[in-house]
Amino acid sequence: MLSLPKLNQVILVIVLAEFxxxxxxxxxxxxxxxxxxxxxxxxxxxxxxxxxxxYWATKSILQLFVANYIDRxxxxxxxxYFFLLGGFLNATFVALYYFATQVWHIYGLxxxxxxxxxxxxPPFYAIFTRHVDSGKEGFEWSLYSSFSLGAxxxxxxxxxxxxxxxxxxxxxxxLTSVLTFIFTIILFFLRPxxxxxxxxxxxxxxxxxxxx
Length: 212
What we know:
CATH topology: Growth Hormone, Chain: A
Distance between the termini: 20 Å
CATH architecture: Up-down Bundle
Order of helices and strands: HHHHHHH
Radius of gyration: 19 Å
Helix content: over 70%
Strand content: under 5%
Shape: globular
C-alpha cells in the first residue's frame, strides 16, 4: 500500500495556511479584470495591465531587500514577524478594494499589496526551506505545489465567479480579506517551532518537535 510520509509541524502549518491564502486570492482571478473595467471610473483593459505591472515591479524589487535583511539576521524570529506583517497588511489592503471607485485607487492598492507580498514571500521560502525534512524534500515541496497552490487555485477559481454573482464583486474582496486574516492567525502556530536569534559566529541548534 502507498503510505504518505509524515510531516513535521512547521511544514504542516505552512501548507494548510498557504492553501487558505491561495484559495482566498484565487477568488479574485475570474473577477478582477471585470471589476476594474465595469465598476471603476475610467477602468479599461489597459488599466488592468498597468495595475499588474505596478504590482510585479514593486514586489520583485522590494522582496530582494527583505530577503537580504532576514538572511543577515540569525534565527527565524525576524522571518516570523515579517510573515505575520505581510499577512495582516494583505488582509487590510485587499479589503480596501470594497471602497475603490477610481483608477488611482486600483494603482495605489496594487502598490500596497505588492509591499505586503514583498514582506510575506521571502520569509515563507526561508522558513519552509529550513524545515523541509531531509530525504523528503521532493515530496514536501510537491505537497505545497499540489495542495497549497494547485488545489487552492483550482478551488478558489472555480467558486470565485459564483461568489461574485451571488454576493457581488465588492463583497468577494471582503471575503478574501477575512480568509487572509485567518491565514495570518494560523501562522501563530509556527512560533513554538522556530529557532531563536543566536549571536553571530555561533552554530544554531536545529531542532524539530516530534512528527505527527
